[in-house]
Design goal:
mainly alpha, 77% helix, 0% strand, TRAP_DctM, 429 residues
Length: 429
């Protein structure tokens, strides 16, 4: 009866709009009472603090701050001009530029929402002025922004690594090929759409000269190279690379004539707010995880899977459907926080590589940013570009379908994710 009451409380609070941290934390504490485990609450503070005392967490606020500085420092425009000099000559070239700029931006910020905000203000008006429909320009911006959390550095991969005790460096390496593959898939879709819809572009299109735009963009382009090479080849830890990213973002922003003290202060304020929100969620997760370990919930789920006779691939498909459904209505980090500690350990028990699992879950949940009714990236671009939300949903469907097919490929072919970290000696199979 007590467990039923807690379940009803959880459902009412969820649909009543309660903040996810309070929802998880209060439900977990009530769960201790309902399961007659209240005596274990005395050890909860020590348990929570021990789980948060992880070096990997240091990188998260620093990468958030780096992304905030880059978003305000004029870096996006330099990357757009360089991308245009390379791809502006092709049919639908500005669509390709949008995707390539997201690749460059992803190697710096690691955030889909930062990418969408920056390029929504920068590229969508330019594409519309060149003859693209505004809803298509916003749709390709939304679809390409998903590259941000896959190509390292990635906030969601750091979050997963700390949550599931997985090497962040290995996760970063595993995200490189899927992120580039996603960019390639989007370029193919854009090429097809450009010819079908008669988008502008071609040899006669005006575009910046390659060398001048390259030299102007070089400070921005050097950032992901320095960060990634330092992490992947062992010169820096993710936290050290994040600190370097903050310093470099500030210097590059000043080089482009931006980042007055007011913008720096706003970036720090925004970072503090986001970091605080994330760590409150982590405290709630640790509380729920403590209860789950006492009740042996992951072991019971694994036993249920064994009884159902699900194979490793079968369980992965079921798990991904559940995460996709969660991503439609929940924030990415909240969905991972709520479902990850319960659903991921049984997959690992079935033999799924934890690094492969991180890429699948990270990609899956970021796709949720493109799915109604609460797709975060769609909401941002709908607001920025003044496009009807459901009109934008329709425009993004071809790209969304391609990303779902790529997700299926990542599930079925682990080597797409694992070949690079294995080659670098970061994992062994």
């Amino acid at each position: 009866m007590h467990v039923l009451a807690v379940t009803i409380f959880f459902i009412l609070a969820l649909f009543g709009g309660a903040a996810i941290a309070y929802l998880i934390g209060s439900t977990a504490v009530l769960g201790f009472v309902a399961t007659d485990n209240i005596r274990y609450l005395a050890a909860l503070p020590q348990r929570v603090l021990s789980q948060l005392d992880m070096f990997a967490f240091m990188a998260m606020p620093l990468f958030i701050l780096a992304g905030e500085l880059m978003n305000r420092g004029g870096i996006a425009q330099a990357l757009v001009n360089f991308s245009l000099s390379l791809l502006g000559r092709f049919k639908g070239g500005l669509g390709h530029v949008n995707i390539l700029t997201s690749v460059f931006f992803a190697g710096i910020s690691g955030s889909a929402t930062a990418d969408a905000s920056a390029l929504g203000n920068t590229l969508v008006p330019v594409m519309e002025s060149k003859g693209y429909k505004r809803d298509y320009a916003a749709a390709i911006t939304a679809a390409s922004s998903i590259i941000g959390p896959i190509i390292p550095p990635s906030i969601i991969l750091i979050f997963y690594g700390a949550l599931m005790n997985t090497s962040v460096t290995a996760l970063f390496a595993a995200g490189v090929v899927p992120g580039l593959l996603l960019a390639g898939v989007l370029i193919v879709i854009n090429t097809v759409q450009a010819h079908r819809l008669g988008h502008p572009g071609g040899k006669e299109a005006e575009r910046p000269r390659v060398l001048p735009s390259f030299w102007h963009a070089l400070p921005s382009l050097s950032l992901p190279v320095i960060i990634l090479s330092g992490i992947l080849f062992g010169f820096m830890t993710p936290a050290e690379a994040a600190g370097l990213a903050v310093l470099a973002a500030y210097l590059v922003g000043r080089y482009y004539g931006g980042l007055p003290l007011r913008d720096v202060w706003e970036a720090m304020h925004r970072t503090a707010a986001l970091t605080g929100a994330i760590f409150v969620i982590l405290v709630a997760i640790a509380t729920l995880g403590y209860l789950a370990s006492i009740e042996q919930i992951p072991q019971k789920l694994a036993a249920q899977i064994t009884e159902l006779g699900l194979s490793k691939t079968g369980y992965l498909l079921v798990l991904n459907v559940l995460f996709l459904l969660a991503g439609m209505i929940m924030d990415v980090k909240a969905a991972l926080a709520l479902m990850g500690p319960l659903l991921i350990p049984p997959a690992l028990a079935l033999g799924v590589d934890p690094t492969h699992m991180g890429i699948i879950v990270g990609f899956n949940l970021t796709i949720g940013l493109l799915t109604p009714p609460l797709g975060g990236v769609l909401l941002i671009l709908s607001t920025v570009t003044k496009i009807n939300y459901w009109q934008l949903v329709r425009a993004v469907l071809p790209f969304l379908l391609a990303e779902l097919l790529l997700l299926a490929a990542l599930i079925l072919v682990p080597d797409i994710s694992l070949a690079l970290p294995e080659a670098l000696g970061l994992i062994s199979r």
